[in-house]
Amino acid sequence: MTLRSVDLRTEPVEAVLNRVERSLGVRLNQEPVVRKRRSLGARTDRDTWVRIERRGLDRIGVQGGDGTASAEALRGIAKPAWLAGIAWRDEMERVMWQADETELLPGAPVSGAVVTEDPRLSEEWWAAMNASLDALAAQHTNRIATPDTETLTQELVAGTIHRAFAGIDTTVVEWHPAHADFNWANMTAPVFCVFDWEDWGMAPRGLDAANLWGASLVVPALASRVRTERRVDLESRDGKLMTLFVAAKILGPYADPDDPRLGAARETAEQVVKELQAS
Fold first, then answer.
1. Is residue 6 part of a domain?
2. Mean pLDDT per 10-residue run, the chain (279 residues)?
3. How many structural domains does the chain have?
4. N or C: fewer beta carbons within 10 Å in the chain?
5. Final residue of a domain: which of 41, 70, 103?
6. pTM exceeds 0.70 for this model
7. Are 56 and 167 contained in the same domain?
8. Do the beta carbons of residue 69 and residue 85 sit within 8 Å?
9. What is the largest CA-CA distance in the chain?
10. What radius of gyration do the chain's Cα atoms show?
């Protein structure tokens, strides 16, 4: 059975919201509901937040759909506490719905996933981001990261990079826990907090830093700041591979010719390719 393509920004969702209210014993503020392509979010009457995700069973993998709940075991990371959750299989389609209730965020998201202007973040913000990423990388998990809902394997790394950059040895050596969707829409300011943990798991070193770099390219000074702050990760061999992994998604066969990040991504990627070939 082919899974129906659904965009929750336009799909009727009243039945889903009502089911979540009954199951979690909350009342959702349905005006407004934050709607994304495959997730919904709303504040509750007990001053918490509920995020609801729709994911095909073929994109759940062996680790299940409990990313946000399992992230509660992580320590030393600025993130909202997980409070409760429910999951159910859709009666009509090969789809799982997952709803997680968490603490409210300490601020608004920095921007959309790709930033278009300098958010002017404080030194305290950068320090908190670094501390959280360092703490995350030092922990242990059996989960495997699922960026863009795809299980992150050595084969996926090689296939993605080689679509844009041929002749690169893509063998990953270091794997560490990563958020795997580390972009400006999933972090708050002025107080740093990272949320939406559904895809976290083991990933090549530098994935989160490379993702944030790729999401910053429209603002050159910000992209440079990201690379400076996460230099140790991004200058490692695996970090360079993750830079190409992210760049390949921008520059590869499905590139958007109007993407304002193209030039900056290509310039950095060409330099990284030279460094890898020389090593």
1. no
2. 77 94 94 88 95 85 77 96 94 90 95 95 98 97 91 97 96 98 97 96 98 98 98 98 98 92 97 93
3. 2
4. N
5. 103
6. yes
7. no
8. yes
9. 60
10. 19
Tokens of 2: 């082919």
User: Within a domain: residue 239?
Assistant: yes
| Shared domain check, 115 and 33 | no
List own/partner pairs for 79-84 with CB under 8 A and 24 or more apart. 79/132, 79/193, 79/194, 79/195, 79/197, 80/49, 80/104, 80/105, 80/193, 80/195, 83/48, 84/24
Instruction: Read off the amino acid at residue 170.
Output: T
Residues 6+ apart with CB under 8 A from 116: 218, 219
Minimal CA–CA distance to 271: which of 229, 213, 207? 213
For residue 86, what is the domain's CATH number?
3.30.200
**Single residue among 88, 103, 118 that ends a domain in this structure:** 103
In a domain? residue 234:
yes
DSSP the chain: -PPPP--TTTS--HHHHHHHHHHHT--B--TTPEE-SSEEEEEBTTSEEEEEEEEEGGGT-TTTT-HHHHGGG--S---PPEEEEEEEE-SSSSEEEEEEEEEPPSSEESSSSS--S-----HHHHHHHHHHHHHHHTS--S-B--GGGS---HHHHHHHHHTTSTT-------EEEE-S--SGGGBEESS--B---TT-EEEETTHHHHHHHHTTTTSHHHHHHHHHHTHHHHTSHHHHHHHHHHHHHHHSTT--TT-TTHHHHHHHHHHHHHHHHH-
Encoded amino acid at 260, one letter: P
